[in-house]
């Protein structure tokens, strides 16, 4: 059984927002709803700036699911956390629990009027049997067609990877090996030799972690 | 005989409710250990240790997304909130409500109803004006509705969802949330009016102290003296002032997210709101019990506005004297 | 008990399965509606006013898959468009396109919305008494045609200015130049003038062709890269895929030299902050270390480069202290960079507007070339001058001469060039001559002199006509796919617009020109369609030509540009000449015929082998081309480079594969090898200008040689290799003018490049500065350097216009305007942004125009992040924008993006757009505060280095 995961390689992500608009393109979420976003930390700080693309991580033991009063989240066989909009009451709890700010709401109105929560579906649609209706409500179901998420497919630098956790981790590990092995920069500045060895080691550890998805 | 049967049946239901609470405790309290750090490690590997310190520490960056809190990569508070809510408040609330019910049940089974010591004289004394009653029932009704809808939001997925067909379940939950959100502000308004209207009766005095010493009549012999309102009623009033207002204010913060509240603010107020309203509910059980089952003749006061002379003498002797003196004078 | 059991039943897994099952039956439609109803009554918060956007009606109709190319930048990313019932319903990643491998930046990934946009120009309109009035196409063309005919009669053909577009496909670009030429003027331009004109001039004058010498893909082979004045991560995001692969696989070292710490800099091994406008000094500083340490490629210099000794002399003036004073970079950093670039070869230098858009632009670009020559990087795979072009087809539009200084193919404007093209067009040369104003002005006849440039049309309107080298001022302007807000000196532009007799805007969107003009009459809007509503070829920055298929039919009443050209040509009575060799379907000229026509004339740069059939074949076989080498493996295109990057010599029958890496001597010419072009003569000051001991593999001459002519073939005894037909055609001609292609064929047969085998030159004796010089910007905060590095004296006439230098620089503004202002790109928007700001998927991401200010300045000026501020320019313009407080810029620099428009000095122009066609996001244009300043070779505008003052807005 495949377990789907995202992986954003910050050594490659250039904050081009391609993934963000690719998601719009695939899912046509309305103005203000960005299932994916790119966050740049230490913006403008030489040698420190890092950009990362985030959406729903489809967490194991998802916190959103744990706090949802109507239990509208459900895990799929692929390890995705999907969401039933019919049962969603727009309480916002998932947003308050989610570590990654993934849940999005069409409004933040008085009387807690938020509309139905919308979040990344890993381009796997949602609980609706009619495909046209499904698409209107949840966006594209690419997985069903054997395609992977559009955000990752369109990533300008192939920083964002999506797919089976194992495969994704393999691709990443290969990159790490290149970078680490060749003593190349890991991080933005050129590191001293000893430091870069340490970093290469960290990298290898990280690559290992990336494979350890349950 | 009839009386005792009704007592047993009431007792039975109280016990069942209690049992329900107990059984659901483990379910509600089941811990779900998600780990943002692990998720993050898997999905954003690489980068320097510095970055990790920042990201996991919730340091915010820049983003083009306009959503609330979008500039924070990883919000660590969410997990704490989830834990507090799911592992402390949910079971804690059940314990509080259950505890309150248990207390009342035992009290009822042991002590039973406080009866009128003297037969009714038939003379009726006005205790609550029409406006008093209107405001009481206005607040009380909303309180019950809000409690039920609020409890649904906190607990119903453990009780209702498994037994309702999904469509009904969703319909109920959507209704519950909207009812709660639209009526909440009206409740707050009522509470405010009530407080303003009744505050003058509610300052504590020496009589209340004695009333407390006698435990409202449970300790020792003879009914303690009380004025228009006894010490217990005043305590309830001040609970409404402090806890009730907390519920109301925190509720309003939650109900109007359109002022750009951060997620952290919302988490905090959700906790405050849940804790305070659960406390209020637990206390309200007592109030309801005393005002209905627990005290013969109390309910009619709030129902009709009038109480029987005997009741007044028994429970609020000082007030009774005051009222009769006034009447005599005139 | 029941309760308990039920509850435990709903433990996660079984529960989910359950719920999924139940939900799939499609219950609950009523409840969600009810909830929606209630929710909708909630008040909207202030940040929640959400524009509506068109949603695609999805269906299960059969899917047609079309291959097209992103229209937003010169990377040229491939796109799969899925069309159902004529609606563009999906966009898929083109994993097999060899340039992007499916990748897109924000713009490319949002491309599909253009197929749905409602904020377009929907029908022809004109401004009458301040109101937009709908017109029929016929009426619009008639009125516009009558007006230009009237102006032609009164003031001559040069009073109509034809501002074309890099958004044209190649065929439209070529047709536009041809049409305007036959209208009788050289006042025809497009955005290349304000984009890479200084590159084209500087680079072509260094080694022959003014284009990127290799490709994005070839950068995968680089071992070092110097980005100077390029922010590829935001301007050419998909190029970064190749860059980062090089960094990963090749341990390629990346240096970014930029006044601003950009997203590209964040990926660099070394970031160097330089002062805006100090590029030449910076490069000289690098060369100082390279020469001091003997790191230059001596053999390469001896064999292939002319004049490096003169450069050495110049560089002596730039020891580390001097360089540090001018650029702000210390000796150690300079040394490190120089060593890094020397140790890691082949390497490339990447530059964009940061290098070109300066008064000293041509000096900058030549300095970069000289650096690459010294390192011996040019003509090697993995090395090169990576000139990242801007618009999707700015390379093609440049090649096709939508510029005032040349006919298509860089033939120039001399009579010979006109005769060559008259021959290709089958139009009588005298007839063409008669279309022109025959008066001699300063510098010559308008037919043979450079026209006014796009950067100066404002002056062309406002200047005293006695001082201009043409009959009258510009009286009518065509803005045919142009964003006026990308041009400097906004307030003066507004004046010029007011003075014009007529403005004609031909564009899918109304553009800023439609609203900033302050007119009440005489503005026409003609709706052109986008490149997805027509088809044709487009040249990416790497010279690869990609074919686009039509995705959807033109929206509303819009028409493809070439159809509008036909209508206009017909109206002014020149359609017979313009379309002599081109079939017309209805009113639409046949694209393939246009390709075939230019195939017959574009010999100079080898746009001759790319027949429509070959181009389409490449389009259909994306998968066959290698991601690194761009070479096809298998299929009928086996051995071709993707898109037949020019020069693709000879005729299509010759099957030249195109030239992937220019000047690469390790390949035979027939397989894409070349030496440097011998374009500057054979000898100067007693030194040869031909290559010495270096030639492409298989070159039978084995050494340098001049360009091929018929006479040379005879001398070499290769004349008889020509067929008889070729002989007739070639007689008296050379490789550029022989319409049979025979001369090229025979030269290549003998392993020789038709354009000769010369040396690159470091000294361009025909330019104002033969050797690139550091000159202080016209507006500088370093007044102390002005005396030592002054700008030029004023020129009496450049491109028909008097042009000021010293007069401007002499005014000291440094006290009042202490901060250097520079401008640049955002990844979400393109150019003037009219199109991208009308795409909600993009507009949502950048809703406010802003200025980047260093925290030091912000604190001093008491400005907080997100505050409104006024930015004042020294020529009187001012803009109200949001402050972004960031360390991306240093204390002495402020930065603004240039894609905004629709607000003008605090005034909101939204109401001036025709109803329903206003972009989602408006903002002040940075160019309202930018200032005077033009490169003396090309009249490139100065946008990267002016000065400003910032104040908190009340
Ligand atoms: S919404 Fe948040 S908490 Fe839920 S699965 Fe996605 S990332 Fe995890
Ligand atoms: S997986 Fe699909 S839904 Fe999720 S962010 Fe990517 S494109 Fe959007
Ligand atoms: S598309 Fe790729 S490189 Fe661009 S922002 Fe998204 S993850 Fe980063
Ligand atoms: S704008 Fe350029 S980099 Fe972005 S998708 Fe289009 S062609 Fe590719």
Automatic annotation (TrEMBL), chain A:
InterPro entries (alphabetical): 4Fe4S_Fe-S-bd, 4Fe4S_Fe_S_CS, 7Fe_ferredoxin, ET_IronSulfur_Cluster-Binding
Cite the NCBIfam families for this sequence. Answer: FDH3_beta (NF038355)
What is the official name of this protein in its record?
Formate dehydrogenase
Q: Which CDD domains match?
A: DMSOR_beta_like
The Gene Ontology terms for molecular function here are: 4 iron, 4 sulfur cluster binding; electron transfer activity; metal ion binding
Q: Which SUPFAM superfamilies match?
A: 4Fe-4S ferredoxins (SSF54862)
Cofactor(s) of this protein? [4Fe-4S] cluster
Q: Which domain of life is it from?
A: Bacteria
TrEMBL record, chain B:
Per the database record, which ranges form the Cytochrome b561 bacterial/Ni-hydrogenase domain?
A: 127-305
User: Molecular function terms in GO for this entry?
Assistant: electron transfer activity; formate dehydrogenase (NAD+) activity; formate dehydrogenase (quinone) activity; metal ion binding
Compartments (UniProt record):
Cell membrane
Q: Does the keyword Iron apply?
A: yes
- KW ATP-binding (keyword) present: no
Q: What cofactor does this one take?
A: heme
- The protein's name is Formate dehydrogenase subunit gamma
Instruction: Recite the lineage of the species.
Output: Bacteria, Pseudomonadati, Pseudomonadota, Gammaproteobacteria, Oceanospirillales
TrEMBL record, chain C:
Query: Which superkingdom?
Result: Bacteria
Which SMART domains does the protein's record reference?
A: Molybdop_Fe4S4
Gene Ontology cellular component annotations, sorted alphabetically:
cell envelope
Alphabetical keyword list:
4Fe-4S, Iron, Iron-sulfur, Metal-binding, Molybdenum, Oxidoreductase, Signal
The primary location reported for this protein is other
Q: Which GO terms describe its biological process?
A: anaerobic respiration
Q: Which Gene3D superfamilies match?
A: 2.40.40.20, 3.40.50.740, ADC-like domains, Dimethylsulfoxide Reductase, domain 2
Cofactors demanded by this protein: [4Fe-4S] cluster; Mo-bis(molybdopterin guanine dinucleotide)
> Which GO MF term does the entry hold, naming one?
oxidoreductase activity
Q: Does the keyword 4Fe-4S apply?
A: yes
**Location in or out of the cell:** Cell envelope
Record domain 4Fe-4S Mo/W bis-MGD-type: where:
63-119
Which PANTHER family does this chain map to? FORMATE DEHYDROGENASE-O MAJOR SUBUNIT, TUNGSTEN-CONTAINING FORMYLMETHANOFURAN DEHYDROGENASE 2 SUBUNIT B
The text of the family note is: Belongs to the prokaryotic molybdopterin-containing oxidoreductase family.
What's this protein's name?
Formate dehydrogenase
Q: Which organism is it from?
A: Nitrincola tibetensis
């Amino acid at each position: 059984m495949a377990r789907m995961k995202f992986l954003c390689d910050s050594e490659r992500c250039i904050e081009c927002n391609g993934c963000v608009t690719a998601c719009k393109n695939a899912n046509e979420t309305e103005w203000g709803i960005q299932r994916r976003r790119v966050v740049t930390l230490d913006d403008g700080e030489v040698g420190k700036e890092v950009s990362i693309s985030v959406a729903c991580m489809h967490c194991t033991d998802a916190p959103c699911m744990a706090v949802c009063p109507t239990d509208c989240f459900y895990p799929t066989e692929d390890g995705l956390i999907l969401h039933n909009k019919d049962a969603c009451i727009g309480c916002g709890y998932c947003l308050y629990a989610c570590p990654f700010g993934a849940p999005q709401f069409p409004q933040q109105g008085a009387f807690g009027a938020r509309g139905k929560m919308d979040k990344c579906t890993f381009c796997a649609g949602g609980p609706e049997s009619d495909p046209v209706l499904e698409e209107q409500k949840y966006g594209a179901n690419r997985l069903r067609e054997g395609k992977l998420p559009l955000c990752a497919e369109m990533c300008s630098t192939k920083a964002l990877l999506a797919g089976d956790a194992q495969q994704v981790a393999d691709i990443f590990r290969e990159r790490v090996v290149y970078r680490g092995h060749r003593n190349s920069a890991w991080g933005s500045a050129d590191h001293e030799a000893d430091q870069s060895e340490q970093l290469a080691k960290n990298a290898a550890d990280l690559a290992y972690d990336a494979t350890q998805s349950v | 005989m009839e009386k005792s049967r009704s007592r047993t049946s009431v007792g039975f239901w109280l016990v069942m409710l209690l049992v329900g609470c107990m059984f659901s405790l483990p379910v509600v309290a089941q811990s779900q250990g998600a780990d943002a750090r692990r998720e993050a490690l898997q999905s954003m590997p690489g980068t320097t240790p510095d970055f990790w310190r920042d990201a996991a520490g919730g340091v915010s960056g820049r983003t083009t997304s306009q959503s609330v809190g979008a500039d924070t990569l990883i919000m660590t508070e969410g997990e704490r909130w989830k834990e507090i809510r799911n592992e402390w408040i949910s079971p804690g609330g059940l314990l509080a409500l259950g505890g309150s019910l248990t207390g009342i049940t035992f009290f009822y089974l042991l002590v039973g109803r406080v009866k009128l010591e003297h037969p009714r004289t038939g003379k009726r004394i006005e205790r609550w004006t029409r406006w008093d009653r209107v405001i009481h029932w206005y607040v009380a009704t909303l309180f019950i509705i809000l409690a039920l809808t609020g409890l649904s939001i906190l607990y119903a997925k453990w009780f209702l969802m498994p037994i309702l067909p999904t469509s009904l379940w969703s319909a109920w939950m959507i209704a519950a949330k909207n009812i709660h959100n639209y009526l909440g502000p009206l409740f707050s308004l009522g509470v405010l009016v009530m407080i303003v209207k009744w505050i003058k009766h509610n300052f504590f005095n020496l009589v209340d102290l004695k009333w407390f010493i006698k435990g409202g009549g449970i300790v020792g012999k003879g009914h303690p003296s009380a004025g228009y309102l006894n010490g217990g009623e005043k305590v309830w009033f001040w609970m409404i002032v402090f806890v009730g207002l907390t519920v109301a204010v925190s509720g309003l913060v939650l109900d109007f997210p359109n002022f750009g509240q951060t997620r952290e603010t919302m988490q905090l107020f959700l906790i405050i709101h849940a804790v305070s309203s659960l406390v209020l509910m637990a206390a309200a059980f007592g109030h309801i019990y005393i005002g209905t089952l627990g005290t013969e003749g109390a309910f009619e006061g709030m129902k009709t506005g009038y109480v029987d002379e005997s009741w007044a003498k028994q429970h609020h002797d000082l007030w009774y004297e005051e009222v009769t003196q006034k009447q005599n004078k005139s | 008990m029941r309760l308990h059991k039920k509850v435990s039943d709903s433990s996660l897994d079984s529960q989910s399965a359950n719920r999924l099952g139940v939900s799939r039956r499609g219950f609950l439609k009523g409840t969600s509606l009810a909830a929606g109803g209630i929710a909708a009554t909630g008040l909207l918060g202030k940040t929640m006013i959400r524009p509506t956007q068109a949603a695609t009606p999805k269906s299960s109709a059969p899917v047609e898959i079309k291959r097209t190319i992103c229209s937003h930048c010169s990377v040229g990313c491939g796109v799969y468009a899925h069309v159902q019932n004529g609606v563009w319903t999906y966009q898929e990643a083109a994993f097999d396109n060899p340039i992007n491998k499916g990748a897109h930046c924000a713009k490319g990934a949002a491309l599909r919305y253009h197929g749905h946009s409602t904020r377009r120009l929907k029908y022809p309109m004109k401004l009458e008494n301040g109101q937009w009035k709908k017109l029929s196409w016929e009426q619009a063309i008639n009125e516009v045609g009558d007006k230009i005919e009237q102006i032609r009669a009164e003031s001559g053909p040069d009073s109509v200015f034809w501002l074309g577009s890099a958004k044209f496909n190649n065929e439209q670009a070529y047709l536009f130049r041809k049409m305007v030429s036959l209208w009788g003027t050289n006042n025809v331009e497009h955005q290349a003038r304000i984009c890479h004109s200084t590159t084209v001039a500087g680079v072509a004058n260094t080694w022959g062709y003014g284009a990127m010498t290799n490709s994005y893909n070839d950068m995968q082979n680089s071992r070092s890269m110097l980005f100077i004045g390029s922010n590829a991560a935001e301007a050419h995001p998909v190029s970064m895929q190749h860059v980062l692969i090089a960094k990963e696989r090749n341990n390629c070292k990346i240096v970014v030299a930029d006044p601003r710490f950009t997203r590209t800099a964040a990926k660099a091994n070394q970031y160097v902050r330089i002062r805006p406008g100090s590029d030449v000094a910076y490069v000289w500083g690098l060369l100082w270390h390279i020469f001091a340490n003997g790191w230059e490629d001596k053999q390469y210099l001896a064999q292939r480069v002319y004049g490096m000794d003169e450069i050495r002399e110049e560089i002596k003036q730039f020891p580390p202290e001097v360089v540090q004073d001018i650029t702000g970079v210390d000796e150690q950093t300079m040394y490190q960079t120089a060593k890094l670039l020397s140790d890691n070869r082949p390497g490339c230098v990447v530059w964009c507007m940061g290098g070109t858009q300066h008064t000293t632009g041509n000096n900058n670009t030549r300095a970069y070339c000289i650096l690459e020559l010294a390192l011996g990087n040019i003509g090697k795979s993995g090395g090169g001058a990576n000139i990242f072009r801007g618009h999707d087809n700015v390379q093609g539009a440049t090649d096709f001469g939508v510029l005032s200084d040349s006919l298509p193919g860089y033939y120039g404007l001399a009579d010979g060039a006109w005769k060559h093209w008259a021959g290709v067009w089958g139009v009588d040369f005298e007839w063409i001559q008669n279309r022109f104003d025959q008066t001699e002005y300063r510098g010559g006849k308008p037919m043979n002199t450079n026209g006014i440039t796009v950067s100066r049309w404002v002056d062309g309107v406002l200047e005293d006509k006695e001082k201009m080298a043409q009959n009258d001022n510009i009286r009518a302007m065509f803005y045919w796919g142009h964003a006026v807000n990308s041009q400097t000196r906004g307030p003066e532009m507004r004046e010029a617009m007011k003075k014009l007799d007529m403005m004609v805007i031909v564009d899918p969107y109304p553009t800023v020109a439609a609203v900033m003009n302050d007119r009440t009459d005489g503005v026409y809007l003609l709706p052109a369609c986008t490149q997805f509503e027509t088809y044709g070829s487009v040249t990416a920055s790497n010279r690869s030509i990609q074919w686009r298929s039509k995705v959807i039919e033109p929206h509303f009443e819009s028409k493809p540009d070439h159809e509008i050209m036909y209508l206009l040509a017909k109206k002014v009575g020149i359609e017979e000449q313009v379309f002599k060799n081109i079939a017309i379907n209805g009113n639409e000229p046949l694209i393939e015929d246009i390709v075939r026509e230019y195939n017959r004339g574009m010999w100079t740069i080898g746009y001759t082998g790319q027949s429509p059939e070959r181009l389409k074949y490449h389009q259909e076989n994306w998968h066959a081309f290698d991601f690194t080498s761009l070479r096809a493996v298998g299929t009928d295109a086996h051995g071709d480079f993707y898109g037949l990057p020019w020069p693709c010599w000879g005729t299509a029958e010759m099957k030249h594969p195109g030239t992937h890496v220019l000047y690469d001597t390790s390949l035979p010419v027939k397989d894409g090898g070349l030496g440097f072009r011998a374009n500057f003569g054979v000898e100067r000051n007693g030194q040869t200008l031909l290559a010495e001991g270096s030639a492409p593999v298989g070159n039978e001459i084995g050494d340098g040689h001049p360009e091929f002519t018929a006479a040379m073939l005879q001398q070499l005894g290769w004349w008889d290799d020509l067929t008889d037909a070729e002989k007739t055609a070639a007689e008296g001609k050379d490789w550029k003018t022989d319409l049979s292609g025979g001369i090229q064929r025979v030269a290549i047969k003998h392993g020789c490049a038709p354009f000769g085998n010369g040396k690159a030159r470091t000294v361009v004796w025909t330019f104002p500065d033969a050797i690139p010089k550091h000159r202080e910007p016209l507006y500088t905060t370093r007044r102390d350097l002005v005396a030592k590095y002054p700008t030029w004296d004023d020129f009496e006439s450049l491109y028909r216009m008097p042009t000021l230098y010293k007069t401007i620089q002499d005014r000291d503004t440094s006290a009042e305007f202490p901060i250097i202002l520079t401008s640049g790109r955002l990844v979400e928007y393109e150019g003037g942004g009219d199109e991208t700001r009308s795409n909600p998927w993009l507009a949502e991401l950048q809703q406010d125009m802003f200025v980047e200010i260093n925290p030091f300045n912000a604190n001093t000026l008491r400005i907080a992040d997100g505050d409104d501020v006024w930015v004042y320019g020294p020529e009187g313009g001012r803009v109200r924008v949001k402050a972004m407080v960031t360390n991306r810029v240093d204390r002495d620099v402020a930065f603004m993006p240039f894609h905004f428009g629709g607000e003008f000095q605090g005034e909101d122009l939204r109401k001036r757009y025709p109803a329903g066609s206003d972009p989602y996001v408006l903002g002040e244009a940075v160019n309202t505060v930018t200032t005077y300043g033009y490169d003396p070779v090309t009249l490139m505008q100065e946008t990267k280095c002016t000065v400003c003052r910032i104040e908190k807005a009340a």
